[in-house]
Specification:
single chain; about 170 residues; mainly beta; Neuraminidase; Laminin; four-stranded antiparallel beta sheet; LDLR_classB_rpt; 6-blade_b-propeller_TolB-like
């Protein structure tokens, strides 16, 4: 570690490893504190945000004023050798974080996926059960149907969602 500032960390539960980045490095270690390995040690890179998927570490490199998204393979056969670093995107501006979304990483089922969970308008899954919502109106006594005005205008800004009832 080059400094005492961590910009991001990522837990990989399958391999029991923690990845983190600081000023110029990306490092991984087993949960028990053994097996520390430097994935990236660069005098020029400036890793900021991390994501991991299928033996590839992705990060935002804040070098310069544009920002880049980069990736490197971290399988056992590659670490310790000079693995190729790939640039996947550039001119990312002030991107603060990245995440990998993959169907294969999703566990369980979402009851809102079928028939909107039985909700008239909007189904929200709280991790245990479907919860119905009615933007601009109230949820009726049955917990599924909406009550109140039937027409509303929905205004969205970068900071808020604001439904306004018209009737």
């Amino acid at each position: 570690m080059r400094g005492d500032v961590f910009f991001n960390f990522y837990f990989v539960f399958q391999s029991q490893r923690l990845y983190w980045c600081d000023l110029k490095t990306i490092v991984r270690i087993f949960y028990n504190g053994t097996g520390r390995e430097v994935i990236l040690d660069s005098g020029t890179a400036s890793p900021f945000a991390l994501a991991y998927h299928q033996d590839i570490v992705y990060w935002i490199d804040r070098t310069g004023d544009k920002g880049f998204m980069k990736a490197v393979q971290v399988s056992e056969s590659v670490v310790g050798r000079r693995a190729a670093t790939l640039t996947l995107g550039d001119d990312l501006g002030s991107t603060k974080d990245i995440a990998v979304f993959s169907v294969g990483r999703q566990r369980g089922t979402n009851p809102c996926a079928e028939d909107d969970g039985g909700c008239e308008e909007l189904c929200l899954y709280d991790g245990k059960r479907p919860v119905c919502a009615c933007p601009g109106r109230t949820v009726g006594p049955d917990g599924k149907n909406c009550a109140g005005g039937s027409t509303y205008l929905h205004r969205r800004t970068s900071h808020e969602n604001a439904p306004m009832r018209l009737q």
